[in-house]
Amino acid sequence: ASADPRFISSAKGKGLFATRNIRKGETVFVERPVVSSQFLWNALYNYRACDHCLRALETAEENAQRLLGKSSLVLPHPEQCSIRKDLHQQCPRCQVTYCSAECRQAALEQYHQVLCLGPSRDDPTHPLNKLQEAWRNMHYPPETSSIMLMARMVATIKQAKDKEWWIKAFSQFCNKTANEEEEIVHKLLGDKFKGQLELLRLLFTEALYDEYLSRWFTPEGFQSLFALVGTNGQGIGTSSLSQWVHACDALELPVLQREELDAFIDQLYKDIEKESGEFLNCEGSGLYVLQSCCNHSCIPNAETSFPENNFLLHLTALEDIEAGEEICISYLDCCQRERSRHSRNKILRENYLFTCSCPKCLAQADDADVTSDEEEEGEGETDDAELEDEMTDV
């Protein structure tokens, strides 16, 4: 591997360090999540994704038609769409859809035996459906986490022959003190969090209780599990339309055709934004062992993306990185990174419980601790800043 996790200090926890010189633009690693899940509202609104790997299931044309609300739209170069509907499979019992036989099998072997709803898929009184409905009523879009990520963790251990191996795998993720956990849960659930957390715990217990994991079902254990997902969950975004756009960008075309195609794509995205706003992707979150070791910097030397249109996370170097150097990503989006040190740290403290001391923040340490007038106007926008790394362009 090009990178290795190392313990830094009790305040900072782990960090990820380059084991060799890495060139700008190079893929540092590709990582599969230990567990992942699509967001519940995202699925409810017909963002159709593989139930296991989150690969978008619509063709690029269907994707664009739905986002535009226009079924007559025809995309040029349909051969550039990578979706293979002939490979799609459903669970024969509950009809959730997978992009391939491999994903259906992988889900079945890891967690789906426990979570398969069978004929109760549309029964609102089924414990798992009650749990999902309660979660949707507490956590509206923009979504940053999912109770089903926790459900899949429990189901994975219930199904596993080597339960201890999985418990160890999950315990690698950053843990917080009880006070910090409470802050994270509070952030995820809002003002009524104590009552909501207890309701979720009871529904979670009714749907999934397991003697072996009894600690996870106690109030303290459930809060810890919740905080683990809130702290370590990495947003995943997939889109067959963006895959098609990337493929079209790579086409060798005569100048005039290239200009026409670029103009068509630009206009398409403008029209989609009017109709669907910012919600373009199939979205979910996952737990990634290596990626979760990456600390934040306001001038990151690496970034995450999902170029394969599924849950495989690619970490790419934004700069040359020397052997022994720490690899950092940004927990803030581009707009947030341009703001003052005071504003950046306000977002990081509220959502990630730390104050940044990257070179950029240290260089600006003497700047006034007030936000500028323009920033004040934008302040409200960041109060709900993502609780996990920003959705990356796919």
From TrEMBL:
One of its GO terms (molecular function) is zinc ion binding. It comes from the Eukaryota. It catalyses: L-lysyl-[protein] + 3 S-adenosyl-L-methionine = N(6),N(6),N(6)-trimethyl-L-lysyl-[protein] + 3 S-adenosyl-L-homocysteine + 3 H(+); L-lysyl(36)-[histone H3] + 3 S-adenosyl-L-methionine = N(6),N(6),N(6)-trimethyl-L-lysyl(36)-[histone H3] + 3 S-adenosyl-L-homocysteine + 3 H(+); L-lysyl(20)-[histone H4] + 3 S-adenosyl-L-methionine = N(6),N(6),N(6)-trimethyl-L-lysyl(20)-[histone H4] + 3 S-adenosyl-L-homocysteine + 3 H(+). InterPro entries: SET_dom, SET_dom_sf, SMYD5_SET. Keywords: Cytoplasm, Metal-binding, Methyltransferase, S-adenosyl-L-methionine, Transferase, Zinc, Zinc-finger. It is an enzyme of class 2 (transferase). PROSITE patterns: SET. GO terms for biological process: methylation; negative regulation of gene expression, epigenetic; regulation of cell differentiation. Residues 368-394 are annotated as: Disordered. SMART domains: SET. This is Protein-lysine N-trimethyltransferase SMYD5. It comes from Quiscalus mexicanus (Great-tailed grackle). The gene is Smyd5.
